[in-house]
Design a protein that fits this description.
Two copies of one chain form a homodimer. Chain A has 435 residues and is an alpha+beta fold. Helix content of chain A is 29%, strand content 14%. Chain A has 14 helices and 15 strands. In chain A, the strands form four sheets. In chain A, strands 5-4-15-14-13-12-11 form a seven-stranded antiparallel β-sheet, with helices on both faces. In chain A, strands 1-7-8-6 form a four-stranded antiparallel β-sheet. The first copy, chain A, has a two-stranded antiparallel ribbon with strand order 2-3.
């Protein structure tokens, strides 16, 4: 059965990191609306997606799942509160579709309009100086729908942790064991909060999805994000799994992207605030930004949110978060996040600690408080999630791009060539052609 | 194991219909916030509620579950749309708490304030002529939270079916098999749509929760509302279960309250509209009334909403629905439901068909389009759900009461004595003391 589940894993998109199959179905060929997943009364058996058999997470089925994650397990709400949504003024432009760029490592040009399908985009919103200049949806995502944010989730909690630090409620130099004694004997025990926030911990934790024995599989099975094999005897919750993580090397060294740091940080935030992280996210962000819709979280069997990647949001609300960051932490006339926190994120992490992580599409970048910082001439920085989720903030151009996608390949190295230069070209176009 | 599950059933509140245990814990003793279910990081094992072992549906645990149903399984969203919530002006009054009434079958008086805890109320909103004159929450329900509506769900779909009839899109005299051929060989095949809507079908379907062999158990297990025994081989979805229901007697006779009629009606609505009923509810009601929050549905393994009782809403949004009914179907300057539909519901069903159903607390009432109609001097009518859920519309007094509760006993006969006369007394008080 372990074998069978490994086969499921191998068949899932999480397993195909960095290797391009001979021919991927196009966006049109894999359109979840056309393919009719879960449609009909009842849907025919071949159109039913299930968590138990792993079908919900295979490509192209995952193109439906990413807009309907709540249909596959328990969730909690992230309330926007009872008020009216904040205005997102509209000034849509028709000139953006023709903006051309050269994809990384290629010679032929591509347009912004062509990139939409090339990146298996489910929805994209571009704000320029706070106004919607471009908005488009495809597949089964709608403005009133919610999409899996994947690891963009992390940037929300990196930001919140930084806010708690700024308020003096969280000591970034405190050892995790001081705050969460249950983690004393785990790898996290002698890591500092700041090391978690910047993912500079020495952990025996592989995020290589192609390896069925990688610890990331134990992690997501413990949290019930992916199905468990029958007779599964492993950790039952995120809390239990976190306590099993062992050290490998020293903390404070090179940046190493490991989702488990975010869940450990989530536990720290829970302990410091005394509240579920979904509630903290509601109080600190969702109810403060005039969000249009509630967000929601996938939770494990004891109601613990998947702080490493379980958030689902409306696309425009993701854009509102980026716009608040662009505005030095201000939104709707209030300072929601201290300017010093935004400045610190924008300034980035230790650039010397980044190259060892080997991200060929991100040369010269750094990682800070669970944000990816480009250090380019525009000072752009990003929240990123597998399969093409991105929130791109370009301070110089006054531009925010929020994109949800369901790319067949998990690793963003597969879409960076046709997203990052597109964002840069659009930023330059908006700078040169303001309206 | 069947035995074990029957024991779970017997221990659940659904099983204690109409029999008063010697001593029920009070509202204060059973307060889910005080008892700390699912609180802590992590919660201690004795505070964890689970679906698998039935603990989520036992009393007093269900007091937490009713405000957190989404944590126990898959759900779908009922979108409010992107607009601003409609205003619910506030004119709170302090005189209502002292309004006194005589509970049915008792001699001592009780006040409105006392009834709050006596009915294990989680939240109550009273509108008088469209303004909030009273609003209170307890336990773990908050204005920004959502609560299980139980069978109040039915009244939404009875109303929507009546709207489809009024629009000529649904023939109330059509046989169900004409619309849903899959139900041809079931009991529903030769029932008319109107007979479903008024629950005047002859079905072999017991809703006696004390009987572990009652068909209602098969129904909710098929839809995964309650846990299945290991090795369960029965129907896997609501669709499959509906096809197994057999006839008992003739259609068109006496009213007999059976939840399965609502799920059959749900299938009819799905087939007629070509949409999931949650989407229909969003388009027809939720996005039309300026709802404050999205609602959500528990769904079965193929994403089919539990039209008989799986809706969860914010309390104020339930009140908004009642207020639209009170205003002859109008809300926010629009005719959301045709006045003729509201009139027909208010006029009630065949009163002669009602008494056989034996509701001692509802003398002279009738049932129409999945609403309960009092035929009292005020023309009051209700949506009702087990454990004390109620939406009470009193046209003469211009009053709407929306109440969510988690009474230990499922049957509303247990709370009617301390709710129905309270509503009547409040209505008379508001009539006599307008402001």
């Amino acid at each position: 059965m372990k074998r069978a589940l490994a086969a499921v894993a191998a068949a899932s998109a999480w397993a195909v990191l960095a290797q391009t199959p001979p021919a991927l179905p196009t966006a049109a060929q894999s359109d979840p609306a056309t393919l009719g997943w879960m449609q009909g009364s009842p849907p025919t058996p071949d159109k039913v997606l299930r968590k138990e058999d792993g079908s919900f997470y295979r490509f192209p089925q995952l193109r439906w799942t990413f807009s309907n994650a709540r249909q596959f397990g328990p969730t909690t709400n992230v309330s926007r509160g009872p008020g009216a949504p904040s205005a997102l003024p509209r000034a849509e432009r028709t000139d953006l579709d023709d903006v051309a760029f050269t994809p990384l490592g290629r010679s032929e040009r591509m347009t912004w309009a062509q990139a939409f399908d090339a990146n298996y985009t489910d929805g994209i919103v571009v704000l320029h100086r706070g106004r919607i200049v471009h908005e488009r949806y495809a597949g089964v995502l709608r403005p009133e729908g919610q999409h899996l944010a994947q690891s963009i989730t992390k940037s929300f909690f990196g930001t919140i942790a930084a806010v708690l630090v700024a308020e003096g409620r969280l000591d970034p130099e405190a050892k995790v064991a001081q705050l969460v004694p249950e983690l004393k004997d785990s790898a996290f025990g002698d890591a500092t909060v700041r090391q978690l926030m910047d993912m500079r911990t020495g952990l025996k934790y592989s995020e290589n999805y192609a390896d069925p024995n990688a610890e990331v599989w134990m992690h997501v099975r413990a949290g019930n994000v992916l199905p468990r094999p029958p007779g599964y005897q492993g950790p039952q919750t995120f809390y239990e799994f976190l306590q099993t993580v062992r050290k490998d090397g020293e903390h404070g060294g090179a940046f190493a992207y490991r989702t488990v740091n975010s869940d450990a940080l989530g536990w720290v935030i829970r302990r410091v605030t005394g509240k579920p992280v979904g509630q903290v996210l509601s109080e600190r962000i969702w109810s403060q930004l005039g969000m249009e819709q509630d967000a929601y979280f996938s939770v494990d069997s004891v109601g613990n949110e998947f702080a490493g990647g379980g958030l689902n949001t409306a696309l425009r609300d993701l854009a509102r978060f980026g716009e608040m960051m662009r505005n030095d932490g201000r939104a709707n006339g209030r300072q929601v996040v201290p300017k010093a926190v935004v400045d610190d994120i924008r300034n980035g992490g230790d650039r010397a600690a980044f190259p060892q992580a080997s991200y060929p599409t991100l040369p010269g970048w750094s990682y800070r408080s669970m944000w990816w910082v480009s250090h380019n001439a525009h000072g752009a920085y990003m929240a990123r999630g597998i399969h093409g989720q991105s929130l791109y903030v370009d301070p110089k151009a006054g531009m925010v791009v929020a994109r949800y996608a369901s790319h067949p390949l998990a690793a963003n190295a597969n879409n960076d060539p046709t997203t990052l230069p597109a964002y840069q070209a659009l930023a330059e176009h908006l700078l040169a052609n303001p309206r």
